[in-house]
C-alpha cells in the first residue's frame, strides 16, 4: 500500500508539472496570436472591436505569471473558458461531445491489440520454430511497417469508398445519438469496425513480438525449470509463471498506449471522420485555440496518469519483486 | 571472445535464416539505390519533366506526380533524405534513453526519482501537440525534424531500459555481484549493460522505424518542409494532388511501399538481433551446433535442459 | 517432441478464410444496421432524404451555438437563419432586395433611407419591423465585440440609425462614404424582442434561434452532423424541408462523399470533368465562376523586394498556365495587370491598362533576366543574384499546408524564380502560423487573394493605400505586402465621396494604371469559387447556364438566394 501511495503522490506531482508545461508551451509560439486569431475571422475589425473581442476571449496582456495563477485557479473550479475557434461555445461542450467516442475507439483498439497480440505472441513462443512462429512475425511485421495513415487511407479508399462495405465516417447512422438498444449498439459497433481494425492491424506486430520474445526469455529461466522439475504441469507453468512474467513489458507498454489514445488516434479520426478528440486537438493547436488546447491537454494528461497508475498497480500484482525491490 | 561469438553467430545467422536474408537484401537495395541517387536518378526530382499524373511507362518507370515530376527520381532522392534523418534520430534517442536509464540505475535514490519524474513528464505530455507547437516554432527542415522527434521520442526508451535494469538488478547474478562487494559502475557496465544489449539493439532498430514513420506522418500532416523531397513529402504531395481519388495510385503507393519495406526489413533484422543478444538463445545455438537436439524453450521437455 | 499446434494449411486458404470471416462480420453488422433502420423508433428528425445534404463546415466538434455575431459563427447562422437587408449577388452583379425592398440616398449622400418588406415575420410569429433593424445596429454600436458586415461602421462613417416608421429605416452618416451602403445593407438583422433580454450578446450561445431565414428549426444536432428545417413563417415559398450539414476532416473525405453521391451541394472535387461529372453526367455538375484573383505578395519591406523592377521581373518568370493546370485543373485564366477579376468587374476594367500591363504579366524569363541584369542585380558565384544591400536574393515562400491549389502554385513560383537567379524555398506551415506571419508582415513571399466586394474600391484600398499599411509586427488582414502611396489615398477619398458611377469608374481606371505601374502585388490567376451540385434528388441549383446566384457555399451571399429555387425531385 505504501508503494501505491508513493506512486500516487508521484503522479500528482507529474500532473502538476505537465499542467504547467501545458500552459507555457503554446505561449512559446512567436508573434501576437491574440490579434491574429481575431483578425483572421474578420477583415473589418477596428481597434475597439479587437479589444472587446480579446476581453470576451479572455486574452489579456497581463504578465504570464498572473495569467498562470488565474489559469490554475480556473482549472480548480472546472472553468475552462470558451473556445476561440468555435466561439462562443464553452470548451467543456466540445470536449464532452468527443470524449466518449475517443475513449471507445481508443480502448477498443488498444485492448484488442493487447489481448490478441499477447496471445499470439505467447502461442508463437510456446510453439517456437513452428509454422505459426515462422509465419506470424513476418506478416505482422510487414503490416506494422506501413505508416498508419497510409494503410488507413488505402483501406478507406478500398473498403469504404470503392466497395462501400463500411461507412465513410461518423460514429453512428442517425444525427441524434442512437438509442441504447441492441440495434443502436450494433450500429455503433459497425461504425467502429473500419477505424479500429486499421489500428489493430498496424499495432498488432509489436505486441505479438514483444510477448513472444519476452516469453522465450522467461521460458529459459532457471526458476521455470525448477518449477517444471518440481513436477508442476506445463500448462500451469505457462499460465501461472511464464505468461505472467512475460506480460510485464507489454503491460508497461499498455500504460503508454492507453495514455496515447487521444493524440495517437488523430490520424484515424481524420481519415475515418470519427468524432473524437484527436482531431479537435489538431484543430485547437493549429488555430491557437488556447482554452480548448489547455482543456484537452489536461484531459489527456490526466488520462495518461490514471492509465499509468492503474498499470503500476497491476504491475505490482503481477510482479511482487518490483514491490519489494522498491521498498528495499 | 563473446564479441567474436556474437559476430560469428551473426554471420551464420545471416546466411542461415530466410527472414534475415530477405531483410538484408531489401535494406541493401533501398539504401544502396538511395545512396546512388545522384548517379542513377533519371531526372531532377524537383522539376516537372513530364505530364501531370502520367501512368508508369518506359520514360517514367514509376510514372509522374500531380506536379509532373518523375516519381522514380523522387523515390531515390527521397530515400537519401529520409534515411539519414531517421538514422540520426534513432542514434540520438537511443543514446539519450540509455544515458538517462543507466544514470538512474547507477545512482538510484533521489537521482532515480528525479530522472523517472522527468521521463514520466515527457511521457505524459501529449507528444503530438508538443511536436506541432515545436514544429510551428522552429523553421521547417531536417534539423527541426531531428530535434523535435528526439525531444519527444526518447522517454519511452528510458522507461523501458530502466525497468529492464530494475528487473535485471533483482536477478541472482547481480545480487551475487553486489554481495561480493562489486563496484556499482562495474555492475552497470559489466553485468547490466551487456544483458540489456538485445533490448537496446531492438529499441534502436525500432527507433529507426519510429523515426521513418513519424517523419512521414508529420510531413503528411503538412508539418514538414514541403519543399524538400522525402518519402513523407512525396506522400504529402500525393495527398495534396488527390492522387487516390484521381486514380494516380502510383504517386501514393511508391513512397508508402518504400517506407513500409524499409521498416519491414529493419524489423526482420531486429528480430534476429534480438535473438543474438539473448545469451540463453546463443547457448541453444551452440548446443545445436554441437549436435544436441533441444527444442528450445518448449515446456514439453522439462529435464532436457540438463542434457 | 515438437508438435506444431497449427494444422498445415496453405496460406491462400487461410487468407481466404480470413476474408470470408471478415465479410461475414461485416455483413452481419450490416444486417443489424439495416434491421436498425427498419425497427428504430421514430426520432423527431425529418428524414434525411428530404434534406439537402451539404458540406459547409470543417471538423467534427459542432456545438449548438447560433450566435451570428461570432467571428466563428456556425455556417447556418448567416446562410439559413439571419438575413440581411439586401444581398449583393456576385453572379449577376446586382444588389438584390431582401428584407428591404429598396433604398434611397439623400442629395448630399449623408443619409440613406431603406424601405422594408411588409410580409416578413420572425420564426416565432412576431412581425419583423424597422425597430429590429435599428436595434441590431445600435446593439452593435453598444457592443464592439459583435462582428458583422457593418462592424466598425459607427467609428468610420455612421452617425445614427433610427426607425422612421414600422417599415422605414434611416441611416445618418457623419461623413460621405457611399461604399458604406454595401456594408450596411449586408448586415444581418436579429429580433429585438429576443436579444433585448440577452445579458451579454457577445457570449450568447443562442441554441434556439429566432430568425427570419428559411431554415431555423434545429430538430437534430450531433457532434459531427446537424440538420436545420423549415421556419414555419418564412416570407417566401419553399419547396424543400431543410438542410443537413455534415462535417469532414479532410479534402479526400469530402471528395469521397461527393463522388459517392452522398452530397447534394458541395464545392470542390479535384479534376471535376473526369473524376466527378463523368460518373453521372446527367445529374453531376459544377460551376466555378471566378470572382477574385490569386496574388503573389512580395513583402516590400524586405531588401530587393521593395524594388518594383524586381517584382515585375519575378512576374515575367512565372508560368501561370502551369499553375492553373496543376493547381485548379485548367479551370481558370491568367490574371491581367489590374489585379481585378474579369467576370465581376468587366465594367470597371480599363482595356488600355490591361493591354499595356501585359508587358509584365506575361511569361518571358529572358526578359526577366535582362531586366534584373540591367537593374544591377548581378549573379553571385552560386548563380544567385545579389541585392543592392549585398544580401543574396534568397527568399522563403510560405503557404498553409492543405490549401492544395496554393501549395501547388507556390511550388511552381519557387521553381520558376530559380530560373532567373532568385532562390526561393517553399515552406508549408499551419494555417495559423501562416496567418500570423502574413498579417504581421513577417514574411518574404506568400500568396494572397482579395475579398469579394461589390466594387474594386476595397481591392485598391487594401493593397495600395497608406491607410491600410500597418507597421511590421502589427496584425492586419489587409496590405500584407506593406505598400502605400498617398496619391492612392486621395483617389479613394474622391471615390468614396461620389454617388456618380461614371466618376467612380474614372477614379478606378486611374488606380488600375497605378497598380500596373507599381506592381504592389503580382497577379497570378483568377481564383475559382468552388461549387458543385448533384441533381439526383434536388433540382434548381444555379448553373453555368442559369447564373441567377453564386453556387459557392462559402460566400455569405449565395445560399440565401438559392434556397427558394430548390425543389425535391419526384420519386
What can you see in these coordinates?
The complex is a heterotrimer of chains A (328), B (307) and C (571). Chain A has 328 residues and is mostly helical. Chain A has helices at 2-24, 33-41, 47-57, 64-76, 91-126, 131-144, 148-162, 182-219, 222-229, 234-259, 261-264, 266-271, 277-286, 290-318, 320-327. The model of chain A has no long low-confidence stretch (mean pLDDT 79). By secondary structure, chain B is an all-alpha fold. Chain B is built from 14 helices and no strands. Chain C is built from 18 helices and 20 strands. In chain C, the strands form six sheets. A five-stranded mixed β-sheet of chain C has the order 15-14-16-13-17, with helices on both faces. In chain C, strands 1-10-9-8 form a four-stranded mixed β-sheet. In chain C, helix 11 runs parallel beside helix 17, helix 15 packs antiparallel against helix 16 and helix 16 (486-496) runs antiparallel to helix 17 (501-518). Chain C is globular. Chain C starts with 10 loop residues before the first helix and ends with a strand. At the A-C interface, helix 2, helix 3, helix 5, helix 6 and helix 7 of A face helix 1, strand 9, strand 10, helix 7 and helix 14 of C.
Question: What's the short version?
Answer:
Chain A is mainly α and 328 residues long. Chain A contains 15 helices and no strands.
Low-confidence stretches of chain A: none
The pair of chains with the biggest contact is:
A-C, 87 and 87 residues
Average pLDDT for all residues of chain A: 79
Strand-pairing-aware structural class of chain A: mainly alpha
Basic shape of chain C: globular
Which oligomerization state do the chains in this entry correspond to?
heterotrimer
Q: Output the CATH class name of the domain at 99-287 in chain A.
A: Mainly Alpha
> How many beta strands in the DSSP annotation of chain C?
20
CATH architecture of the domain at 99-287 in chain A: Orthogonal Bundle
Main sheet of chain C: which strands, in order across?
Answer: 15-14-16-13-17
Largest sheet of chain A: none
Query: Topology as H/E string of chain A?
Result: HHHHHHHHHHHHHHH
Shape estimate of chain A: globular
Proportion of beta-strand residues of chain C? 15-25%
Q: How would you characterize the largest beta sheet of chain C? A: 5 strands, mixed
| Helix-residue proportion of chain C | 25-40%
| Euclidean distance between termini CA atoms of chain C | 71 Å
Helix content of chain A: over 70%
Amino acid at each position: 500500500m505504501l508503494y501505491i501511495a508513493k506512486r500516487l503522490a508521484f503522479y500528482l506531482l507529474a500532473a502538476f508539472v505537465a499542467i504547467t508545461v501545458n500552459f507555457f508551451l503554446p505561449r512559446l509560439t512567436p508573434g501576437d496570436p491574440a490579434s491574429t486569431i481575431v483578425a483572421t475571422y474578420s477583415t473589418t475589425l477596428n481597434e475597439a472591436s479587437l479589444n472587446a473581442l480579446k476581453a470576451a476571449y479572455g486574452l489579456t496582456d497581463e504578465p504570464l505569471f498572473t495569467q498562470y495563477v488565474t489559469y490554475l485557479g480556473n482549472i480548480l473550479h472546472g472553468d475552462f473558458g470558451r473556445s476561440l475557434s468555435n466561439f462562443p461555445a464553452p470548451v467543456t461542450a466540445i470536449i464532452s461531445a468527443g470524449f466518449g467516442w475517443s475513449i471507445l475507439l481508443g480502448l477498443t483498439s488498444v485492448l484488442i491489440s493487447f489481448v490478441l497480440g499477447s496471445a499470439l505472441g505467447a502461442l508463437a513462443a510456446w510453439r517456437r520454430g513452428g509454422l505459426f512462429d515462422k509465419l506470424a512475425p513476418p506478416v505482422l511485421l510487414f503490416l506494422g511497417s506501413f505508416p498508419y495513415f497510409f494503410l488507413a487511407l488505402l483501406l478507406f479508399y478500398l473498403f469504404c469508398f470503392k466497395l462501400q462495405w463500411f461507412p465513410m465516417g461518423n460514429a453512428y447512422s442517425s444525427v441524434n445519438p442512437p438509442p441504447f438498444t441492441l440495434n443502436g449498439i450494433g450500429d455503433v459497433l459497425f461504425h467502429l469496425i473500419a477505424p479500429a481494425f486499421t489500428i489493430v492491424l498496424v499495432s498488432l506486430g509489436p505486441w505479438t513480438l514483444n510477448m513472444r520474445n519476452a516469453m522465450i526469455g522467461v521460458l529459459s529461466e532457471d526458476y521455470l525449470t525448477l518449477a517444471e522439475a518440481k513436477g508442476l504441469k506445463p500448462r500451469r507453468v505457462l499460465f501461472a509463471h511464464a505468461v505472467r512474467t512475460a506480460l510485464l513489458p507489454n503491460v508497461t507498454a499498455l500504460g503508454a498506449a492507453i495514455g496515447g489514445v487521444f493524440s495517437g488516434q488523430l490520424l484515424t479520426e481524420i481519415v475515418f471522420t470519427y468524432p473524437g478528440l484527436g482531431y479537435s486537438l489538431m484543430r485547437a493547436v493549429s488555430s491557437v485555440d488556447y482554452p480548448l488546447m489547455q482543456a484537452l491537454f489536461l484531459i489527456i494528461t490526466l488520462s495518461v496518469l490514471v492509465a499509468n497508475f492503474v498499470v503500476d498497480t497491476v504491475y505490482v500484482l503481477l510482479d511482487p519483486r518490483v514491490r519489494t525491490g522498491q521498498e528495499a | 571472445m563473446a564479441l567474436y561469438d556474437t559476430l560469428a553467430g551473426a554471420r551464420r545467422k545471416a546466411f542461415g535464416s530466410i527472414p534475415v536474408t530477405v531483410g538484408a537484401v531489401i535494406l541493401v537495395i533501398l539504401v544502396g539505390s538511395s545512396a546512388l541517387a545522384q548517379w542513377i536518378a533519371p531526372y531532377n526530382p524537383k522539376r516537372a519533366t513530364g505530364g501531370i499524373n502520367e501512368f508508369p511507362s518506359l520514360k517514367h518507370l514509376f510514372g509522374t506526380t500531380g506536379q509532373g515530376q518523375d516519381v522514380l527520381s523522387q523515390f531515390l532522392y527521397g530515400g537519401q533524405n529520409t534515411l539519414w534523418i531517421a538514422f540520426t534520430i534513432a542514434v540520438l534517442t537511443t543514446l539519450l534513453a540509455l544515458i538517462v536509464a543507466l544514470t538512474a540505475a547507477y545512482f538510484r535514490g533521489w537521482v532515480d526519482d528525479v530522472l523517472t519524474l522527468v521521463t514520466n513528464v515527457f511521457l505524459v505530455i501529449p507528444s503530438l501537440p508538443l511536436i506541432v507547437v515545436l514544429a510551428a516554432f522552429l523553421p521547417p527542415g531536417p534539423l527541426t525534424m531531428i530535434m523535435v522527434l528526439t525531444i519527444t521520442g526518447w522517454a519511452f526508451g528510458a522507461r523501458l531500459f530502466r525497468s529492464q535494469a530494475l528487473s535485471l538488478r533483482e536477478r541472482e547474478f547481480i545480487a551475487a555481484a553486489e554481495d561480493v562487494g562489486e563496484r556499482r559502475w562495474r555492475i552497470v557496465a559489466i553485468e547490466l549493460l551487456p544483458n540489456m544489449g538485445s533490448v537496446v539493439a531492438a529499441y534502436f532498430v525500432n527507433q529507426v522505424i519510429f523515426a521513418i514513420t513519424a517523419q512521414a506522418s508529420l510531413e503528411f500532416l503538412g508539418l514538414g518542409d514541403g519543399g524538400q523531397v522525402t518519402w513523407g513529402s512525396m506522400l504529402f504531395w500525393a495527398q495534396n494532388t488527390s492522387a487516390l481519388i484521381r486514380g494516380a495510385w502510383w504517386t501514393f503507393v511508391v513512397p508508402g511501399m518504400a517506407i513500409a519495406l524499409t521498416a519491414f526489413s529493419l524489423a526482420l533484422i531486429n528480430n534476429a538481433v534480438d535473438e543474438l543478444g539473448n545469451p540463453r538463445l546463443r547457448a541453444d545455438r551452440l548446443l545445436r551446433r554441437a549436435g544436441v537436439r533441444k527444442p528450445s524453450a518448449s515446456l514439453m521437455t522439462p529435464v532436457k535442459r540438463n542434457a | 517432441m515438437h508438435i506444431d499446434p497449427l494444422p498445415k494449411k496453405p496460406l491462400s486458404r487461410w487468407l481466404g478464410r480470413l476474408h470470408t470471416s471478415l465479410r461475414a462480420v461485416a455483413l452481419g453488422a450490416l444486417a443489424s444496421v439495416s434491421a436498425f433502420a427498419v425497427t428504430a423508433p421514430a426520432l423527431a428528425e425529418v428524414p434525411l432524404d428530404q434534406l439537402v445534404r451539404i458540406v459547409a463546415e470543417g471538423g467534427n466538434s459542432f456545438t449548438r451555438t447560433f450566435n451570428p455575431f461570432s467571428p466563428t459563427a456556425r455556417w447556418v447562422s448567416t446562410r439559413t437563419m439571419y438575413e440581411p437587408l439586401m444581398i449583393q449577388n456576385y453572379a449577376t452583379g446586382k444588389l438584390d432586395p431582401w428584407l428591404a425592398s429598396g433604398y434611397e440616398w439623400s442629395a448630399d449622400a449623408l443619409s440613406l433611407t431603406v424601405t422594408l418588406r411588409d410580409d416578413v415575420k420572425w420564426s416565432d410569429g412576431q412581425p419583423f419591423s424597422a425597430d429590429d433593424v435599428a436595434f441590431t445596429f445600435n446593439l452593435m454600436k453598444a457592443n464592439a465585440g459583435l462582428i458583422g458586415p457593418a462592424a466598425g461602421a459607427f467609428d468610420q462613417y455612421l452617425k445614427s440609425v433610427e426607425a422612421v416608421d414600422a417599415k422605414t429605416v434611416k441611416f445618418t452618416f457623419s461623413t460621405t462614404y457611399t461604399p458604406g451602403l454595401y456594408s450596411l445593407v449586408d448586415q444581418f438583422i436579429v429580433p429585438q424582442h429576443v436579444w433585448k433580454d440577452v445579458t451579454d450578446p457577445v457570449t450568447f450561445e443562442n441554441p434556439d434561434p429566432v430568425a427570419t431565414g428559411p431554415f431555423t428549426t434545429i430538430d437534430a444536432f450531433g457532434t459531427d452532423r446537424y440538420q436545420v428545417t423549415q421556419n414555419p413563417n418564412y416570407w417566401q415559398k419553399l419547396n424543400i424541408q431543410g438542410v443537413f450539414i455534415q462535417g469532414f476532416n479532410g479534402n479526400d473525405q469530402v471528395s469521397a462523399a461527393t463522388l459517392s453521391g452522398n452530397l447534394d451541394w458541395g464545392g470542390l472535387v479535384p479534376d471535376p470533368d473526369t473524376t466527378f461529372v463523368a460518373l453521372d453526367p446527367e445529374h453531376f455538375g459544377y460551376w466555378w465562376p471566378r470572382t477574385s484573383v490569386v496574388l503573389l505578395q512580395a513583402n516590400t519591406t524586405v531588401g530587393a523586394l521593395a524594388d518594383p523592377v524586381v517584382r515585375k521581373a519575378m512576374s515575367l518568370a512565372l508560368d501561370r498556365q502551369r499553375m492553373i493546370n496543376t493547381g485548379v485543373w485548367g479551370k481558370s485564366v491568367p490574371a491581367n495587370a489590374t489585379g481585378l477579376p474579369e467576370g465581376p468587374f468587366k465594367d470597371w476594367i480599363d482595356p488600355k491598362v490591361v493591354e499595356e500591363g501585359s508587358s509584365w504579366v506575361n511569361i518571358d524569363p529572358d526578359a526577366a533576366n535582362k531586366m534584373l541584369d540591367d537593374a544591377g542585380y548581378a549573379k553571385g558565384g552560386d548563380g544567385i543574384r545579389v541585392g543592392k544591400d549585398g544580401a543574396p536574393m534568397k527568399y522563403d515562400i510560405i503557404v498553409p499546408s492543405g490549401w492544395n491549389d496554393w501549395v501547388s502554385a507556390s511550388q511552381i513560383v519557387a521553381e520558376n524564380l530559380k530560373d532567373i537567379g532568385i532562390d526561393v524555398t517553399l515552406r508549408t506551415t499551419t494555417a495559423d502560423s501562416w496567418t500570423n506571419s502574413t498579417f504581421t508582415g513577417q514574411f518574404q513571399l506568400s500568396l494572397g487573394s482579395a475579398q469579394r466586394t461589390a466594387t474594386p474600391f476595397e481591392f485598391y484600398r487594401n493593397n495600395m493605400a497608406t491607410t491600410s499599411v500597418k507597421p511590421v509586427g502589427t496584425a492586419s488582414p489587409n496590405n500584407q505586402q506593406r505598400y502605400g502611396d498617398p496619391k492612392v489615398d486621395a483617389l479613394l477619398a474622391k471615390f468614396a465621396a461620389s454617388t456618380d458611377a461614371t466618376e467612380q469608374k474614372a477614379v478606378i481606371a486611374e488606380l488600375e494604371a497605378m497598380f500596373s505601374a507599381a506592381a504592389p502585388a503580382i497577379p497570378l490567376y483568377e481564383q475559382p469559387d468552388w461549387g458543385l451540385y448533384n441533381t439526383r434528388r434536388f433540382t434548381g441549383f444555379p448553373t453555368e447556364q442559369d447564373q441567377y446566384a453564386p453556387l459557392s457555399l462559402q460566400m455569405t451571399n449565395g445560399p440565401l438566394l438559392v434556397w427558394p429555387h430548390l425543389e425535391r425531385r419526384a420519386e
